[in-house]
Amino acid sequence: MWWLAHGEHEVGPDLEWLTPRERAVLDGLKYTKRRVEFLTRRWTAKRAVAMVLGRGLAPAAMASVEIRHHLSGAPWVAVDGQAAAIDVSISDRAGWAVCLVGPPGANGALGIDLELVEPRSDAFVGDFFTAGECTAVRHLAAGEARDEAANLIWSAKEAALKVLKVGLRADTRDVEVEVGRLRRDDGWSALSVTHRDGSAFPGWWRRDGVFLLTLAGRRLSPPPVLLDGGGQLADAMPVHSWLTQPLVPSPDATEG
Ligand SMILES: CC(C)(COP(=O)(O)OP(=O)(O)OC[C@H]1O[C@@H](n2cnc3c(N)ncnc32)[C@H](O)[C@@H]1OP(=O)(O)O)[C@@H](O)C(=O)NCCC(=O)NCCS
User: How far, in Å, is the centroid of ligand 1 from the Cα of 254?
Assistant: First the structure.
């Protein structure tokens, strides 16, 4: 497995790397937040897949890769217009996107999720976490460690629910998260998510600066390898650039 992160500031104004279908989706997005998130997710995912497939990063190579969706919203990859046997999972948060790519031909569903370490209310924990998860969070004093624990559990739930391709249609208490604290030299620590039905989703988590990254799959695999050329989450600042211009200016709007 491989992973890559990019910040929205790394996506240039030239959009030749998008396919016509992706361009049409982009043109239909009227809110800057949606547009920036879509572009950052596509930039990151298409670069990651193109690199893993050895296609290079020229705009034409990136445009040969398309991330499409099942009805569930789960992504699948088309290469040169044909479904490709390569699994991806994508997430974005606060101006940054991440993509996890599985080995070509492996056919194993994946989930990745990016979150910030930020306050989560006790009501949030009570509503969305299992009894065991609530206890694990509530025994920590309010502050940084508690915020990290709550966001980590939330993120791992989202990663596992992406593996199941249901996302937040599911009850988040259907899955229970256990996080390991032993940190490897490469920054990854183990986690495990167990579904109410007994199925298990092993994975990994890491903290880079104010970001938390979790991933899960159906099988235990070594942590993913970071692809070259991405942005550094460890130094990344959360960005909410859309706040200054929430609506995408209409193409025929003229400067007054
Ligand atoms: C999966 C889900 C939890 C991710 O939400 P999020 O935290 O806001 O977004 P993230 O940035 O972490 O992830 C977004 C990516 O998740 C992936 N995704 C969406 N639905 C997915 C699903 N059912 N299974 C797996 N992955 C999914 C997509 O790749 C998406 O990016 P893309 O649309 O650019 O390809 C959420 O989209 C969801 O619950 N979807 C199912 C329910 C639904 O469709 N609701 C309608 C919108 S409210």
Answer: 35
